[in-house]
Amino acid sequence: MKKVLIFMSILSMLFGCHKQSATTYPQDVVTAADGSQITFTFYAHASFSIAWQGKTIYIDPVGEFDWDSQPKGDIILITHSHYDHLELPTIERLRGEGSVVVCDKTSADAFEHDCITMLPGSTANPLEGITIKATPAYNITEGHTDFHPQSREDCGYLITLGGTTIYVAGDTENNADVLSIKGVDIAFLPVNQPYTMTVEQAAEVVSALRPQIFYPYHYGQVDDKTDIEALRKAVEGITDCRVFPME
Predict the structure, then answer these.
(1) Using an 8 Å Cβ cutoff, are 101 and 94 in contact?
(2) Model confidence pLDDT, tens digit, residues 8-42
């Protein structure tokens, strides 16, 4: 009998009684205007997720992460078609029954399934209680405009849920369209060079938008590293700057 019990114990460990737990990634939890909880999960660079009321929204999911351990995406949101924002195999891994993909027009051309195609200024209500408005995302610095030309109509997004509006800027600089955005509670601004904002440009946008919380993202992966501490200091007293590993 003792040998049988030992054998059963080994089988249990091998076949399911000790299943490996889901991989965990850095998170931040904030309270929405209506008192509900919003959980941000940070992967890297431009990839993160928003969980609210049992729904999960993925933004630009890209990279070698344990996606299979993460929840399926109720909404998968794509800002534009560059390789560090659009990765079709990862979208397929995160798609579940009823998943909705919302993307800019260049990503829609590459995507193999039905999706909601957005242009700057358009609005969608992909799920009850969630509104998404596309915003312009483009470069204005001389010598940088080919990275994200205005004519391509890449998107940022204003995501409103629980009475709180989250601005995901996409790849953009401090252009006039960005500086004129109103009603932002939480802002994700890209800060890597030479493709998106400098520290000074991001600080100008924060000063104009006045979000309660600011998450720098889309930094690293380039030779010219962003001075995150200088960015913290530049927005001190304007917003709550929360830095997570988004290199």
Answers:
(1) no
(2) 343 344 444 434 456 899 999 999 999 999 999 99
